[in-house]
Amino acid sequence: MTNGPWERTSPVRPYVITGGRAESEGGPLSWESLVMATDAAFPAALQPEHQAILTHCQGLLSVAEVAAHLGQPPSVLQVLLADLLEWGLIVTRPPIPPAERADVTMLRKVLSGLESRL
User: Fold this and answer.
1) InterPro entries recorded for this chain (predicted)?
2) Which stretches does DSSP call E strand in 1-118?
3) Helices assigned H by DSSP within the chain
4) What does the pLDDT look like over 58-96, one tens digit per residue?
5) What is the share, in percent, of the chain residues with pLDDT greater than 70?
6) Angle, to 10 degrees, between the axis of helix 63-70 and the axis of helix 74-86?
């Protein structure tokens, strides 16, 4: 019985992937922050984890989604994303503040109205 992707990896691996870093210099990206690869060609010398991130981030994805796709803890992804951001290989967008989000009640009414017409 497995409990997720982290059970299949060695406990040393995240340490190796991040080069021993537990945090990024600019502070961690929020798990809801959206990331997307830039059009810049990335160097072939990037480590495989960086390349996998760039492959998955062709459209906007949250930090948590990228972590889930790659089977890495979000804390590891935050360090790797900070590298890519520093190198100009990704762009980020902060999460939408709660005050700017759509009203869920209104969205449910719209969905209900659409369903009643089908």
Assistant:
1) DUF742 (IPR007995)
2) 34-37, 61-62, 90-93
3) 13-17, 48-56, 63-70, 74-86, 104-117
4) 888 999 899 888 888 888 888 888 889 988 999 998 877
5) 73
6) 110
